[in-house]
Give the backbone structure.
Amino acid sequence: MYELGLGLPFWVIVLIWLTRVIVMALISILLAWLGIRAMDALNPHIHKRQRIGESPVATGLFIAGFFILVGLVIHGAMTALTAVTTPILGYIFDFRTLGLLAISFVISLLIGVALFHIVNKLTPRIPFLNVNKSPEAVGIYVFGYLIFFGLILHAALTTPL
């Protein structure tokens, strides 16, 4: 099996790197989708999908949050530290990085949800479920957790382990 390094032309190394970035971005987006599904399950009283579609502003916030999420994921995948002397398939499908990505995402998601519920309990005069009364408020809520997932995934991708 070929190894990356001076033995391959530069354009081949760039193509292999680009393949790795695409694979890591797709896996990260899958994790973000699972995280969104988890947030939907943990907050069933906020009807996100129905409410966001009721307002162009809420829809715009959702799209903006999605682009920030994707930008953070792509940046993390492009700047992730990797060994360049490994076999090509080991470089593209780095299971150590993928495992770290999954573990850190799940742990960060659990910590974020726990902190959300603690803050909700500590601030009884701020009813979090009132978000559901306005499509714009729901859009901002979803915008925030899309950025939350983007930051989690970016941190996991760029962790130098």
Observations:
- The two ends are 25 Å apart (CA to CA).
